[in-house]
Batch of 4 targets.
Target 1
Amino acid sequence: MQRRELLTRALTLGAVPWLAPMVSRAAEPENWQAQFAASREPWAPAFATPAGDYPLTKARVRGRFPDAVTGTLYRNGPAGHDLGGERYHHWFDGDGMVQRFVIEGTEVHHQGRYVATAKWVAEMKAGRRLTEGFGTVFSGRDEVSAPDDMNVANIGVLPLGGELLALWEGGSATRLDLRTLQTRGPKTWRADLAGAPFSAHPRTEPDGTVWNFGVYAQRSLLLLYEIAPDGALRRADALALGETPLVHDFVVTEKHLVFLLPPLVYDAQRRAAGASVLDAHVWRPGRGLRALVIDKADWARRQEFRLPPGFLFHLGNAWEEETASGTVIHLDFARSDDARGLLVDTRELMRGRAGGTPGPRLTVVELRLRSGEATQTDLGIEAEFPVIDPRRVGRQHRQVFHATGTPGGLPLWNAIAATDVTTGASQRYSHGPQTIVEEHLFVPDGSGPGWLIGTVHDLAQKKTVLSCFAADALRDGPVAQATLPYALPLGLHGAFVSEPRLADGVVCDRTDCQRARAA
């Protein structure tokens, strides 16, 4: 079968329900909302549901943000966990909310807004959940007939073509206004791609080319996208996967796309019996962790490697070198021994409990294309949310910046680190035992070492703090911080858009700016 035929068949859903269970699972006997409300954990408010959007608000700034970080930091994450007396059973189910931090010297303004997907609009109007989530099945709800019926646009963002795309995992990207965060509707790359999965982890090369993928678990297909810097789709097609793993991220090199396929695989029979999308996946370590390498120029040219079993959410970067023995691909990722973090810990958060599974560790891999050999080295450093200098995407790199340091009694991490993946040398900065860090992003500054910016949930202050660090001197602490008068729900991924200087008309509506600056 030709690949274009595969794509056509995958996208012609007809009357076949998309991932819909044949039998409704009985409602859970526990009241998850009541359990969460009864939690006395100091970190529980980080997973509470905001009552509504956050209007434009001026932050309190200490120090001065460098000129290189004049611009806007966008962040996305699950925020709407409760509705109509019910609480989702997994952190990744929550309605997406995009945060916007506008940075200029000694002024920072914040705005947050729920992404108005079709699901969110319908459920807000009804005052209750109408469809299931990624990890939650409510009994007696509407049948899911297409991926976007479950779309909560809650994982990442992609600034592209004059818009901001809010990204989910299993359906359309959602278009937002860069300045107001107003939702403009789903992004359709091509008529036959309407509603197709578009992952939350696109990779943007230094020349602006965007690569992405999507997984049709129920049809065992991997969709690939190549997008021009102006946002125009260059090509898209589908590849048959066979057994379908849960894939969250990938990396690119100069000539290849590289996927790590964990042995957490989709089981259609579980789904048909009423399991959630998440619970339809089964851990089968005997399959090992597979590395799939795809030629950028010819997607039909593929090579597969086998690594020891393990699980991952995120990769840092990949690059390739030509040696006397052929092409070698180097990559790094945050590896866990198994999928308990996804299957247990991120579920327990919705009850107000900390799971306690050890965090992933920074791991480097070499793939030798000629011999088919693969080697893996654990650097022994706890790491999650790995990022690099965006100018090094697909190129040789040394530094990976990441979250680290699991504090006792708290979920997630409380420190950031810069690790040299060639030597394992690492430096870090801890925000303190009563903090939870989120993903930090690298912002280039000409030929200088650059900057690292990101947010932390300060449990003691009950506030969210935006910090800026010199990328080569994390131990010295922040050079500038902006403290909001409130704490935001913990989120996932973001993007930074640089501006040479921000005028009122760029930052916000003039009236709102005047109000924020007067506050």
Note: Confidence is low (pLDDT under 50) at residues 12-28, 509-517.
Target 2
Amino acid sequence: MSSILERPAATAAEDTPKTTDGFHLVIDALKANDIDTIFGLVGIPITDLARLAQAEGMRFIGFRHEQNAGNAAAIAGYMTQKPGICLTVSAPGFLNGLTALANATTNCFPMILISGSSEREIVDLQQGDYEEMDQLNAAKPFAKAAYRINKAADIGIGIARAIRAAVSGRPGGVYLDLPAQLLSQTLDAEQGRKSLVRVVDPVPRQIPAPDAVKRALELLKGAKRPLILLGKGAAYAQADADIRALVEKTGIPYLPMSMAKGLLPDTHAQSASACRSFVLAEADVVMLIGARLNWLLSHGKGKTWGGPKQFIQIDISPTEIDSNVAIAAPLIGDIGSCVSALLAGIGSGFAKPDAAWTGAIAERREKNMAKMAATLEKNPSPMNYHSALRAIRDVLKTHPDINVVNEGANALDFTRSIVDMYQPRKRFDAGTWGIMGIGMGYSIGAAVTSGLPVVAIEGDSAFGFSGMELETICRYHLPVTTIIFNNNGVYKGSDPNLNPKGPDVPVTAFVKGARYDKMIEAFGGVGYNAATPAELGKALSEAIAAGKPALINAVIDEAAGTESGRLINLNPKKGATK
């Protein structure tokens, strides 16, 4: 019996096989669209598909859990503007990947989840097949689009549709269902070759209407206290030079959302990050570039925003406009085209913001930065978040091209405000949903996609969701350094046991004094245990220089941190007690 890695019906005497099959057509269709990497986890019925991908020159990065593979694919899509591919088995494997697919859709990351599945006729009659599940309909609420391919001749067009759906307009997650019998279907080789589709212009420019550009410019020119707010959509657009030119040409202060940090260096003179609350409350006209007025921006209303605002919103999706508050000047189109049109319309006579506004921002920025500097210089024992992040900040400042992955509650909040970014698309974090568990998946995806080192700054709780992927990092020899802020628990490890007579530990507690560094040593990586900022800085410098898998167990005060970080207002208030 021939191996599945051989083209069916081929003989040694033939130059090319007479037939092909679904396995080969899937790989050929991906390669025809310059997709060269698959993230996933093998099993029935897709093991041979992964083997074939590797045999045909593609990279297959095998994970320990499908959710982490999906997160790697999603962040690869964000970095490249091409859909990242996640391959899973049926039913439970598909469901594991579905969480990552939903997260990709919410964050507007282009990703395709490809899963093997049971045959349609068995699923529909609920006849009890192995891992039987109606995966297509399960995926639909969580994906931008969902497709099933039933015939080998349709593989080329099916993958083309999935690619175009993932990257066009507002990007998102797409589900592609491959029933097991599809993969073994055979087809005339020449017919199969002709069935492949190379997607042409998958992300067509969407030019904003001239009257919309004029309306936005008039509103911007009339503003007394304008503000530009950059979202991760602005970073995804890769219109870096034009966005910087717009900021600097107008002289308008800007505020980056967390994954837009580095689009302009955080040290830029017009950055208002150090006085975020002030500019959001006091601005009269706010231009949103690739940012949505969701919970991360208090839905554009309430105390965060102070008095009435007029918004200019650049977005590719018309339905995003007026989603929470009225938008005075919607600008619909792709970000690159919209920013280019604004630059062309500004001309040389654009008056920069009043000195009273920029001066007030500068004054508060300097005051807040001085206050933060004083806090960072303290050297408590044990370390807290501030002293540990001071050491990390000082090392990363000398490596501006390093990818930084960040998750946790307090670990996320403090890192975002302390560690500066200098280049675009170098910071990857919990994003729009604010979910934990993206850490190791994003780290692997960023390392594989960029070929550059990654530093993952993790809360000990957040790390637990994907920690087994340390083995994956070591298996592929990836230059990922993971730093775990270890304070013995969720939020902090000092909470009391509310039932001291019971057998259990507090609900937020972990094992005291855990040595996470020993985990990576078990897989052949390098572990460090750091109890002071000096030890932490030294370990991080050594790990980056070595370029090998490493983990630093950063021991911090177990009382450091607050519940839910800065989101304590989202916790329901406790009711009356006896």
Note: The first strand starts at residue 19 and ends at 21.
Target 3
Amino acid sequence: MSAISVTEVRNALRCPRVFALGRLRDQPVRFVVGSSSLGAAFHRIVDRFAQTVATPPEGFAALEASASVEAVSRSIRRWLMMQLAGELEATPALASMPAEVDDLAEALRQLAAYLAAHVSGGPFTPEEKLQAFLPDSEVALEHLIELEGGETALLRGRIDALHEPKAREAQVVEYKLSGEENAELDRAQVALYRYLLREVAGVDATPVVLRLTPALKETVVAPAEADALVEKRLLPLVGQMRRWAEAPREAPPTPRSDLCPVCPVRAACVEEYPSWLPQRDMPPSGAARPRPKPAGGIEETAVERGAEPPADADTAGQTAAEAMRKTIVDILRKQGVPAESKKAPIVSARVITVEVTGKRSIRKIDRASEDVIHQLAAEHDADATYAKRKGRRLFQVVRETPRVVQLPTLLRREAAWLGESSGRFVLGEGEDGSVVKADLGDPNCCHVLVGGSSGSGKSVLLRAVATSLVHFHSPAHVRLTLIDPKRVTFKSLEASLGSHLAHPIVYEVDRAIAILDDLVDLMEERYGLLDEANVQDLGEYGEEHPEAPLARHVVIIDEFADLTVTKETKQPFLAAVQRLGAKARAAGIHLVLATQRPDAKAVPGVIKANLPGRVALRVPSGTNSRIILDQKGAEALLGKGDLLAELGTGVVRAQAPLV
């Protein structure tokens, strides 16, 4: 068989079937979960930097041994930025991703500070120390491993960097630009590199993972720990991989619960293995975003092709609903009410709705409804409510085991509609199983006010809105500004949405006010363009100028009340909201403002008057519900994404999806 790479071993640790199917397809598999879209560019830059260490720029070569760490860091930083400039020239696509370029530059600055700390001070110049510290990068190694039973396997790897290989403190280093979601895999990877380096070159190096975002973190793996991991787990795994490559059906499924929905070979896996892999917790669906076809249009991903069972295959919910319908009818009949339920129950993610009718008088059902609710609670531990809707009588019962609503499923179901126009997004799944969606291009919901107390699922909803807005549209058509004074809502999406961000995620109030002021200026500038083109809005402008469309700008603020705490920020914020809310729709600029304190003080009239779209999650009281929706109801929601929305067609109930 062909050689096994360290990257394949890493994949097999996550899921043996990913490795096996990669071999069947005869192409490498890159797993998106926990990875960074900046990695390839970063490694190219650092490799070119390492190749120029022997002939550094004049500024760095002139540094004396007494140069401070700060001076050395500045010089290396300029050196790396020169390499970044070369990468931008060689890769024009990066120019359309300013947020990702900012992240890349920050990672390089972190590396500069790290290197400066190691090559400053002492009797030697920084140039001499750097040449000793970083003599090479992208070091390719291979070693023939003897397995049990006399078999062999060729293991190959490419080491990111060797630090001081001739010294006792030699390190084999792996650079990472992703978070710590896969820290265990990173440790295994550098442990294998240590093994290869020792077997091939006789260098006894300490394994190090150097994580450069969001802040520099150096993880040193003890050599004894690394050797034990290689001996007890990784080499035996290589032996198993050798067998799986020849007999893919023998590869077992992953033990992890977060990988299947965005697996790069999911569709092939469903076809190859007879038992379907159950749906798991979903990562950001930006990770599964469709790619443009060379000839135009959108290339479908596994999500759009329907590689998973349909969302309405809720067998457990249907069974529970039928049992609940029978229970409610039986309770009514025992009370002498001749009721029946002819229609099938409606099964949503969180609630079962049973419609009942009376054979003679419906008033008897109304009078008995409270007794039914009490009996359901006392004898069946069921939380139920009773509703009258246009002559219909409905018992709504909270499901004992709710069904999780996943955003990729909803995106697949509404792919055609969402892809037709930018500004369209998904809110959740309705009570009847339909997808509740909205269009920022619609005057009835061109700007949206979201309210919900802590634990209501507001942050989950905002992440779903942001992700669905960009899923089918390139950065040339949709740009996001995410403002997060709480610093917790959008951080997990920074990598997957990076190319669509007009700015890095904004945490500072002053910066947020400045951006809103800039958008007011952009709005006025765009109205000039619309007048010149003699069109009414951004959509018509795009039809007239398909070669140079205007990107739709969407600003999402979680906890906008933080921008109104002081007089210095309150008036500029309210003034910007008033101007954008009144005029920005036609210019393709939209606001989604959220708060966990939907009271009269946090939501003044100027905000309500300019944000026609309304979404309410669970709130403390009916008064809070009226602030958002102009009616009660949100105080009785279940939390965790249960919502009421008014988007111009009447209030609907939905369950927000997980991202």
Note: The radius of gyration is 29 Å.
Target 4
Amino acid sequence: MSAPGRGSAPAHGRVLTVADVLTLPVVAAGLPQVAAGESQLGRPVRWVHITELTDPASFLKGGELVLTTGMPLPREPELVRRYVHELATVGAAGLVLELVRRYHRPPEELVRACRAHDLPLVLLSRDVNFLEVTQVVHELLLGNQVETLRRTQEIHETFTDLTLRGAGAAEVMRAAAEMSGRAVVLENQAYQALICEPSAHTVEEVLKNWERRSRATPPSDSAAVSGPEGWLVCPVEYRGERCGRVVMLPDRASAEPAFGEEDTTVLERAAMSLAISRLIHPAAWERGAHRSALLDLAEQRYRTAAEAAVRTAALGLPTRDCRYVAVLVDLPAGEGVAELEERLVRDVTAAGVSALVGELRAGRIGMLLALRPARQWRPTVELLGRAVLELIPQAIVSVGSEVTDLSHAARSFRDASHVAESALPGTSSRRPYHELSDIGLKQLLYALRSDVRIQSYVERQVGRLIDYDHRHNTDLVSTLRHYLDAAGNKTAAAQASDQSRQTLYQRLQTIERLLGGDLESGRRRTELHVALTALDVLRLDSR
């Protein structure tokens, strides 16, 4: 026999168990010893019942902790066994026997019968006021009931408010995690974890090997504990069809029962709010999940590389033996982002490539392609690029550098962004996409066109020449451009500009006088070439 630990009453709102009752001072004063059913001390106590009847089970409904002095216990072993059998059958929480009046040692047959039924048998070696025990326990039970009603009302009000405000799935899941204090996950029918609120856990702890663990957890038609890990799961339906489920994970570090009624209420209300949220926001949850994951990768918002890997793996993106390429699609204002996004998802899936696809900001769709070692990215990106331009000819498709580790995806996104900033408007390409190798001097200057230092440089280098052309209706800027394009070859420059050599020489002398430099200098010609190229890209925005 073992003695239960000393302690205090459970916090309000938690189920009162047999073990909790034994720690109450009024019971602990009797020096309780557990003689049988020690593994069942976590049974909830619904009520306390004092009885000196030989058939107390006929007055019980289940969940009662029975208190007795032992006076009515029969002497015959068969009747003792029947006494215990009836208590176990009706679902009594346990039997407390006082060893003061009739017994000073428990009857062996009683101990054996309780052990056979795994019914908690608690022995009190000192006198205990049973009426005081019932008073204390019933006050706790009633207090818990009031607290439970209050918490249930609070849960309903919270999720009702979320629904009325049109909250999205992420906000609903965050509320579920906060109210339960447990990790919660929303997954789709493909066992992909779309939203994870880890609560006191880490993302790695919650989502590691998610698909394998989730497939081992059978679905249910209502909120229920399921699977080898004892998850609390609840289905989510949209327009009469199941579209996923919300999962609450147990706290393995706690000795308390895995889930209570309050947890079930939270999960059921979360599932209901998610269904309504889906009606208000008809876009697939996958799109929001991909968008969030892409932003986290592009902006390096993950705490660790392991967290990034487990999060994307839970969305179905391979994280081993892959190369990754970021692709950005920038659209003119007002174009159909949603339609194009769905088209890209279909096309990349049809191509047999795993990818995350989502809108990163207004007018920009991002993709992260995961390619197996034997597969090159160019054919896939060309296919996607042509699909984009087929729908929106003015769109710009940009590709970043190829990386071999998911933790380096941010670099690929940065490179793709630099390519997008450098893509010249209104220019055609032999390919339906732009890549890093396309960035030349003109593209680089176009990307930097908003920098006032570039604008000031152009003005310092060729501003006087531009002013002279405006005042005298000449075209010296064009003459200078032909001369620089010909790398200082005056004969070639004269032919390209359709001028005589003498006219060209005169204009070059005027240019040298206005700009105050020697055009024969290679350094000077380079400076002027950069200035005229920058002038061209500055004028692109004014067209």
Note: Residues 107 and 116 are 14 Å apart (CA to CA).
